[in-house]
What we know:
22% of the residues lie in helices and 19% in strands. It is an alpha+beta fold. The protein has one domain (2-145). It has a 4-stranded mixed beta sheet. The chain has a 3-stranded antiparallel beta sheet with strand order 1-3-7. It is globular, with a radius of gyration of 15 Å. Mean pLDDT is 69; it is low at 141-175.
Amino acid sequence: MAASNYEDLSGRGGLIASGRWHNRGRAVVYCAESLDLARIEVEQGLGLPAFLWPDSYRLLRVSVPGTTRIEHLQAEDLPLDWRDDILATRRIGDAWLRSNRAALLRVPPPGPTGSTTSSIRRTVRPISWKSSGSSRWRKCWPERSGRRTRRAAAPVKPGLAGLPRRVRRRGGTRG
């Protein structure tokens, strides 16, 4: 799943703003293996709880081919304070983006969970993206949105079948 203000996977949010694993000016899509991890990533990126997200945000279900080259980064390979040192993680991510070694970089999650997030590069070796639809994010997290909904999103399959990316807000901030 991709939680985004955009309904494409161009990575243009990374061109506008820096993320946890890159500096601004790089087309990057941030993803997660589960809806809950995507929510955590987006909440940290925006600095807002889910119930304050704009209604325009969408969840995109994304498929990545099984032949896609993936590089894995383990927590023990990172500086001890990497969760608090965003400059260090951005240096690591920027170096990976320049390296052209793989299309995806799997990184540890920001909190103590068992799943991983993936930072996906779009510019150098574009991979074949397949988006199989989208839905309003409030349908997927109705208990966190403060609104009632009739349907909840289908569960996401484990692995890279459902990948969310870090969200970038268009325009200024909302209060």
